[in-house]
Structure to design on (288 residues):
């Protein structure tokens, strides 16, 4: 005699919604691996594009040297191939900047709230143009730096620039300008999510000014004053603008918090008054 047992349907385990973005250490490592993998794919695709644009881009890089009265020379048989790879990788890094900049920020935001994660695209949309602007500005400054150094060449002599020394100098200059432009975006982003306050920024402004000057001096090849001031000037301006934005945002956040606290206090006091209010109970008339 068989019993008809009711079969309980299998319920699919659904992942609980994690609006606050809390992750374990293992999940962070997996997230970092996925973000890195996506960035490397974008870099590889950009590098492939760099191989096709190698001749045009190398001509653009060498043009400031020729305009300053110098010439770029290859000193080894394998140098053209090595330079092709370096130029293609640099192009890939610049072309893939929208992807890896977003991936860096997206790796930070899982630890934040759902509302704050929605700002990722906005920050990436601002950071990428600033990075490209920094690279373009460095290329604009490059001829002035070359004129300065080549102008120091003694008379009746000719300067021969080796490509192995020239390209690292150019790439370091371009990347330094581009990455430096990301600092204000990072400041604003950390302030928007409540990690960095304008009070902290203003309290440590001397250290920030020193670091900006140090970065500008390191990016300037050979201590070139023109390149140093060309990088430090925009950095100081963008740092001041980012600090002002953080200050205004902190004021708005504090005002909103005061309004919220006053509303919570009003609701709490109203609830307490309802509890403390005496209750009147009518006793029934008893007839003897």
């Amino acid at each position: 005699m068989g019993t008809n047992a009711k079969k309980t349907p299998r319920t699919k385990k659904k992942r609980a919604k994690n609006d606050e973005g809390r992750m374990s250490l293992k999940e962070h490592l997996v997230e970092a691996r996925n973000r890195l993998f996506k960035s490397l794919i974008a870099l590889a695709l950009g590098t492939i594009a760099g191989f096709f644009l190698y001749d045009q881009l190398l001509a653009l890089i060498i043009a400031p040297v020729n305009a300053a009265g110098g010439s770029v020379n290859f000193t080894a048989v394998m140098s053209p191939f090595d330079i092709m790879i370096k130029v293609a990788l640099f192009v890939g890094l610049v072309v893939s900047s929208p992807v890896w900049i977003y991936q860096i920020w997206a790796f930070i935001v899982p630890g934040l709230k759902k509302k704050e994660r929605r700002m990722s695209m906005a920050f990436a949309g601002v950071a990428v143009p600033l990075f490209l602007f920094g690279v373009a500005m460095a290329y604009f400054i490059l001829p002035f730096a070359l004129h300065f150094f080549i102008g120091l060449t003694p008379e009746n002599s000719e300067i021969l620039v080796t490509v192995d020394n020239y390209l690292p100098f150019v790439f370091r200059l371009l990347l330094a300008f581009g990455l430096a432009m990301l600092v204000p975006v990072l400041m604003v982003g950390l302030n928007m999510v409540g990690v960095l306050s304008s009070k902290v920024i203003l309290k440590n402004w001397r250290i920030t000014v020193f670091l900006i000057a140090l970065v500008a001096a390191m990016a300037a090849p050979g201590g070139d004053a023109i390149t140093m001031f060309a990088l430090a000037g925009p950095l100081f301006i963008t740092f001041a603008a980012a600090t002002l934005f953080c200050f205004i945002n902190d004021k708005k956040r504090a005002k909103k918090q005061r309004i919220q606290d006053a509303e919570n206090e009003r609701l709490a006091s109203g609830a307490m008054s309802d509890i403390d209010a005496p209750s009147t109970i009518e006793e029934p008339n008893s007839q003897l």
